[in-house]
Amino acid sequence: MSALLEVKNLKVGYGKIIAVKDISITVNQGEIVTLIGSNGAGKSTTLRTISGLLKPKSGEILFEGNRIDGKEGHEVVKLGICQSPEGRRIFPRMTVSENLDLGAFLRSDKEAIEADRERVLNLFPRLRERISQRAGTMSGGEQQMLAVSRALMGAPKLLMLDEPSMGLAPVLVDMIFETIIKIREQGITILLIEQNAAAALDVADRAYVLESGTIKMSGKASDLAKDSAVTKAYLGG
C-alpha cells in the first residue's frame, strides 16, 4: 500500500500552548484512518494543520510524496485534500445548490463537476429534494450531509471529516457512517476524526489514539476496538 499522506514529527501550537506534540501518522491510498481521543486531544488541530489553516512549529507533512506544510489552504485543496469541518460551517443564506458550487470553486472541468454533483446527490438523495432551499433552514443532519457533499465537490483524493456525527440523532449517525463506507468504495481515501469512537473504529481500517497532543496507541481499528484501555477510556466499557 502506498502512503498518500505522511505526517512526521508534527508540532503545532497556539502561542505558548503546544496542542500537538511531535505526532506521526500515515494514511495509505484507499484506507479509512481515524483519529480518536477526548476533546482537546489535538485532533482538530492536526486536521487544520494538514489543511493549511494552521502553520506547524516543526515537522513535515507529505502528500503523494511532496511536502505541503507551509502551503496556503487553497493550494492544499487544489492538490486534492478537502475537509468537512467540525460544526459543518455551511453558508446558511445560500441554497444547497450554491453551497455545492462553492465546493468546486477551484475547478474548471465543467463536465466532471456536473458528474460529481450528480454523484453527491445520489449519495444524499435528501439534498436533491432540498436543492433550492436555503441551507440554514435545514435540519442538522441535512446540513451535515451538505458539508460532506461540499467537500466532495472539490474532487478530493483525501477527504478529511471532522466530527461528522456530532449532534445527530442515532439513525442519522448510522446513515453518515454507511455513506463514509460508500465514499471509500468510490476510491476516495478518508481521514476521520470522531467523538463516537465505537462507530469510527467500526468503519476504519486503522486508528490512532490521541491524548493531550501525543499518540498513545495505534494499530488496526478492529484490534483497538477490543483493547481494554481503549474500551475503558472511549467506548464506555
UniProtKB/TrEMBL annotation:
Gene3D superfamilies the record matches: P-loop containing nucleotide triphosphate hydrolases
MF terms in GO: ATP binding; ATP hydrolysis activity; branched-chain amino acid transmembrane transporter activity
Domain ABC transporter: 5-237
Coiled-coil regions listed: none
Biological process according to GO: L-amino acid transport
Keywords of the record: Amino-acid transport, ATP-binding, Nucleotide-binding, Transport
InterPro entries hit by this protein: AAA+_ATPase, ABC_branched_ATPase_LivF/BraG, ABC_transporter-like_ATP-bd, ABC_transporter-like_CS, BCAA_Transport_ATP-bd_LivF, P-loop_NTPase
Family: Belongs to the ABC transporter superfamily.
PANTHER family cross-referenced by the UniProt entry: HIGH-AFFINITY BRANCHED-CHAIN AMINO ACID TRANSPORT ATP-BINDING PROTEIN LIVF
Record's protein name: Unannotated protein
Organism the protein comes from: freshwater metagenome
